[in-house]
Specification:
Blueprint (H helix, E strand, L loop, with lengths): L1 H5 L15 H31 L24 H15 L5 H27 L7 H22 L7 E3 L7 E3 L4 H19 L7 H18 L2 H7 L10 H19 L8 H18 L3 H7 L1 H20 L9 H7 L4 H21 L5
Antiparallel strand pairs: 1-2
Helix pairs in contact: 2-3, 2-9, 3-4, 3-9, 3-10, 4-5, 4-10, 5-6, 6-10, 6-12, 7-9, 7-10, 7-14, 10-11, 11-12, 11-14
C-alpha cells in the first residue's frame, strides 16, 4: 500500500525512491510485523485467557510434562496472521497477484485452523474438525490458488517442476501440476501442524524457512541473479520477499511470547496457515523440492507419524515410543528445551543445504 501510494511521488520527493527497493520494504515488513506483535500480544493473550479459561486441551496419552501446561491459551496464530497480513499489505505492491494468492492460502488455511481450534476448545477434546472436512476445505482453497498461480506464471514455467542441482532441467506436468501443487500446499501445511507440539519448536523453523524463501524469491524475481545462478526466472516473485519478511517479523514477535514456558500456543490457526503459505511461495518460485530440504525438519516429523501408523496397522508394533518424533524423545527422557534447541540446529543445517542448491547446478 505504501509502495502504491508513495512510489509515484518519487519524482517530487526523492526520499520516496526508497520504496522501489525490495530490500528496504522487506526490512520495513520485518520491523512492522514485529512491532505489531509486541503491541497487540499482551491484550490478545489476556482476552484469549478470559474466553478460553481452561486453555488448550491436553492429550491424555501425551507426555506427562505437558499436563503442567494446562490453562495456556491457544489460537496464537491470530497474532501471527494479524501482524503478517497488516505488514504485507502496508509494504507490498498490491498489484502483484502472487501476493494475493499467497495470502489467500495463508488466510484460508488460518480460518480452517481457527475452526479446528474452536471445536477443540468448545468440545474440550483434542479431535477438533474432522480430518476429511479439513482436507476438503484445504483442497478447495488450494485449487483456487493453484489455478490463479498457473494463469499468472509465465508459460515457460507455469506447469513445470524445477529439479534442484540441475540447470534448466524442468519436468512439465501439464494439468497434473494441480495435484502436485495441492500436495505441496497441503503437505507443507499439515507438516508444520504436526511439528507444533513443544514451546517454540515450530515457529523458529518457520522463520528459518521464511528467511530462505525470502532470499529465493528475491533471486528468482531478478533476471540478472537468476541468470547467473541458472535458476528459473519468474518476473514479479521478488515481491514475495516482503511477505517472507513479514513472516520473519511475525514469527519472532510470536516467539517472544511462545518461548518456554509459553504464554500462548500457536494452535492450528497458525500452523496450518504458516505451512500453507510456505508451500505456496515454493510453488510460485519453482522451488518446491528445495522446500522439502529447507523444511526437512517438518518432513521428518511427518514421516515419523506415517511410519508409526503404518507399522502399528501392519505389525501391531510401534517404531517410536510416541509420534510425532519430538514426543519420542520426550518419552526417552530428553528435556523439552533440549529437544527444541537440537531440532532448531537441525533446521539451520537443512536450510543451509537447501540454499546450497542455488549454486550447485
Amino acid at each position: 500500500m505504501l509502495y502504491n501510494f508513495l512510489w509515484p511521488l518519487a519524482e517530487d520527493f526523492q526520499i520516496f525512491n526508497l520504496f522501489r527497493y525490495l530490500t528496504f520494504r522487506t526490512g520495513g515488513a520485518i520491523m512492522t510485523a514485529l512491532i505489531i506483535c509486541f503491541v497487540i500480544a499482551p491484550p490478545m493473550i489476556r482476552w484469549l485467557k478470559k474466553k478460553q479459561k481452561e486453555g488448550q486441551p491436553i492429550r491424555d496419552d501425551g507426555p506427562e510434562t505437558h499436563f503442567k501446561k494446562a490453562g495456556t491459551p491457544t489460537m496464537g496464530g491470530l497474532l501471527i496472521l494479524t501482524s503478517v497480513s497488516v505488514s504485507t499489505l502496508l509494504w507490498a505492491d498490491l498489484t502483484n497477484k502472487y501476493i494475493w494468492y499467497a495470502m489467500l492460502v495463508m488466510g484460508g488455511y488460518g480460518l480452517i485452523g481457527f475452526a479446528d481450534d474452536y471445536l477443540k476448545l468448545t468440545k474440550r477434546n483434542t479431535k477438533g474438525l474432522p480430518g476429511k472436512v479439513k482436507l476438503f476445505l484445504q483442497l478447495i482453497i488450494g485449487v483456487v490458488a493453484t489455478l490463479g498461480i498457473m494463469e499468472t506464471l509465465p508459460d515457460s514455467v507455469n506447469a513445470h517442476v524445477a529439479i534442484p542441482f540441475f540447470k534448466d532441467f524442468f519436468v512439465h506436468l501439464s494439468w497434473f501440476f494441480i495435484p502436485w501443487a495441492l500436495l505441496v500446499m497441503i503437505g507443507s501445511s499439515n507438516a508444520v501442524n504436526l511439528t507444533d507440539g513443544l514451546d517454540g519448536l515450530a515457529i523458529v523453523p518457520v522463520a528459518i524457512a521464511a528467511t530462505c524463501f525470502g532470499l529465493i524469491s528475491y533471486l528468482v524475481g531478478n533476471e540478472v541473479f537468476s541468470g547467473y545462478l541458472q535458476i528459473p526466472y519468474v518476473p514479479g516473485t521478488g515481491e514475495l520477499a516482503i511477505l517472507c519478511g513479514a513472516l520473519i517479523g511475525g514469527a519472532m514477535g510470536f516467539l517472544w511470547f511462545n518461548a518456554p514456558p509459553a504464554m500462548i500456543f500457536m494452535g492450528d490457526t497458525g500452523s496450518l496457515a504458516m505451512g500453507g503459505v510456505l508451500g505456496t511461495i515454493a510453488i510460485i518460485t519453482k522451488h518446491e523440492l528445495v522446500l522439502a530440504i529447507i523444511g526437512g525438519l517438518f518432513v521428518l516429523e511427518t514421516v515419523s507419524v506415517i511410519v508409526q501408523v503404518a507399522s502399528f496397522k501392519l505389525t501391531g508394533k510401534r517404531v517410536f515410543a510416541m509420534a510425532p518424533l519430538h514426543h519420542h524423545f520426550e518419552k526417552k527422557g530428553w528435556s523439552e528445551p533440549t529437544i527444541v534447541i537440537r531440532f532448531w540446529i537441525i533446521a539451520v543445517i537443512l536450510a543451509l543445504i537447501g540454499l546450497s542448491t542455488l549454486k550447485l547446478r
